[in-house]
Amino acid sequence: MFSKRKEAPQIDPVQRELYEHARKRIVQKKRLFQHFIIFLVGSIFLVILNLLIGVGKEITFFGTNWYVAAIVCWAFLLVLHFCNVWLFHKFMGTEWTSNQMERLIAKQKAEIALIQKDVDLMYPKDDLIKKKEEFIKKQQPKAVEERVKPKLDRKITMIAAAGENNALGKDNDLVWHLPDDFKRFKELTTGHHIIMGRKTFESFPKPLPNRVHVVITRNENYNPEGAVVVHSMDEALEIAKDDPQPFIIGGGEIYKIGMEYANYIELTRVHGTFEADTFFPEIDPDAWIVENKELHGADERHEFGFTYLTYKKK
């Protein structure tokens, strides 16, 4: 068995500060004592040099022997050292510093209270709350705009075929057969991400070739082969962030969500009214403009006539 390593005890910050203060005081007193001993020995040495050996007997300062002047100057320095350790420290030590800090903090608090009082008089609290609420309301539309704007920097296209009554299909299938429209869908979407709901994906016999299938669903456990599963349009567009033109291909609920994100619509308007259970959302003429229109009449391969419409968001 491994023995547990004992952790070093944690020292309280206040105790550490007291310890450091005591240690510094001991060092100061020790140095003062050493200075005093050196002063005594040095003074005796200077006296011996002058009186017994005769060094510098002729040298005087202001009528006083040089060694006496030296001892007096040294004594003055010793007195300064003593005052610094015992007197000045007592008056301007940690306690004095703490008192000064407390006085400064109290003064600052009083000044802040006066400023707050002036602010309250100039800007009553109720008025500030009202202005804050008004500001938030003004910012909300901008927030939505900023959230959508980056998505509009690239071409995000909804592609669909819908009848005159916006019918898309019934029982998860189309109610018409338009080979040229299928061909156009393939040409436009090949090489791109196609974003769809779960039911639309499941309507395919197999994943469409040369396209990245991104499926939006609320089902956290949905994990089909050949598709990337996400749970919101934001996530889907994040998956397709490197695609210059991802396509939103349905169904009805996904188209409704896509109206906020798309800036182009490739709509095949099938000329007929059909019974359906899934519908394309109404296109607001104040928000969209028709950029291109191409009519395709009915023929032996197409039971219904249709028109290719390219819409661009204003």
Helix-strand blueprint:
Blueprint: H1 13-52, E1 60-61, E2 64-65, H2 66-92, H3 94-122, H4 125-152, E3 157-163, E4 167-169, H5 179-189, E5 193-197, H6 198-202, E6 212-216, E7 228-230, H7 233-239, E8 247-250, H8 252-261, E9 264-270, E10 278-279, E11 288-296, E12 306-313
Parallel strand pairs: 3-8, 3-9, 5-6, 5-8, 6-7
Antiparallel strand pairs: 1-2, 4-10, 9-12, 11-12
Can you tell me about this structure?
The chain is of the alpha/beta class and 314 residues long. It has 3 domains: 13-118; 123-150, no CATH class; 154-313, Dihydrofolate Reductase, subunit A (3-Layer(aba) Sandwich), CATH 3.40.430.10. Helices cover 50% and strands 18% of the residues. It has 8 helices and 12 strands. The strands form 3 sheets. The protein has an 8-stranded mixed β-sheet with strand order 7-6-5-8-3-9-12-11, sandwiched between helices. Helix 6 (198-202) links the parallel strand 5 (193-197) and strand 6. Helix 1 (13-52) packs antiparallel against helix 2 and helix 2 (66-92) crosses helix 3. It is rod-shaped, with a radius of gyration of 45 Å.
Order of helices and strands: HEEHHHEEHEHEEHEHEEEE
Helix content: 40-55%
> Under CATH, the topology of the largest domain is which?
Dihydrofolate Reductase, subunit A
**Could you tell me the strand content as a percent range?**
15-25%
What are the low-pLDDT stretches, counting only 5+ consecutive residues below 50?
148-152
What's the helix count?
A: 8
Write down the CATH class of the largest domain.
Alpha Beta
Q: In the CATH classification, which architecture of the largest domain applies?
A: 3-Layer(aba) Sandwich
Give me the secondary-structure category.
alpha/beta
Number of strands: 12
Overall geometric form: rod-shaped
How many structural domains?
A: 3
The residue-averaged pLDDT reads 83
Largest sheet: 8 strands, mixed
Radius of gyration: 45 Å
The neighbouring-strand order within the major sheet is: 7-6-5-8-3-9-12-11
> What is the CA-CA span between the terminal residues?
75 Å
